[in-house]
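Notes from the 1:1 (GR / supervisor)

We went over the backlog. Supervisor wanted to see one worked example end to end before approving the batch request, so GR pasted a single chain during the call. The sequence is below; no edits were made to it. Supervisor asked that the structure be written out right there so they could see what the output format looks like.
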Amino acid sequence: MAETTDRQSPALLAMIRIIDGFTDRTGTIISWLSVPLVLAVAYEVTARYLFNAPTVWAYDATYMLYGSLFMLGAAYALHKGAHIRTDFFWEKFSIRKKGWIDTISYIVFFFPSLIMLLLISWTEFHYAFQINEMSDQTPWRPILWPFKFVVPLACFLLLVQGVSELIKSIYMMRTGVELEHKEKVEV
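Structure output shown during the call:
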């Protein structure tokens, strides 16, 4: 990023830094959900197989923790470039063409679909909160509104990071310079 600062707006860079910093911090905080997830799974395995005393809460706790970790980590994954992309074609494109494709994709697909998902998931969360909806998956029957709140929160975090990614894409499209190179993630 340093070699191109002479052509970049300080306000643009500041906005990108603020949003990316926010995503880094929230991603770090969210990653701590893996600790209670691992503890819950370890407790359940120990209770079930060593003491023949399975719990009624472990299934609900683990799917809620894992689902939350997965959903809330999406914005961090977007920031780090960990989402799937067709690299076969992508690597052959110029930086400007990548900027065009990303800009159009964010405007036409990313933002409209996430805004729609945010609105729908907020309605689902709000209804679950109003009726104090409980799970019927297990005898534990935990309340579901905290888990349902994860979806609109994940949408909000993705939308915030999407603004940063859109600004970077527009800059790439206009200048042919990448503000941030995303490393290819091998699976």
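Supervisor's comment: The chain has a mean pLDDT of 90.
Batch request approved.
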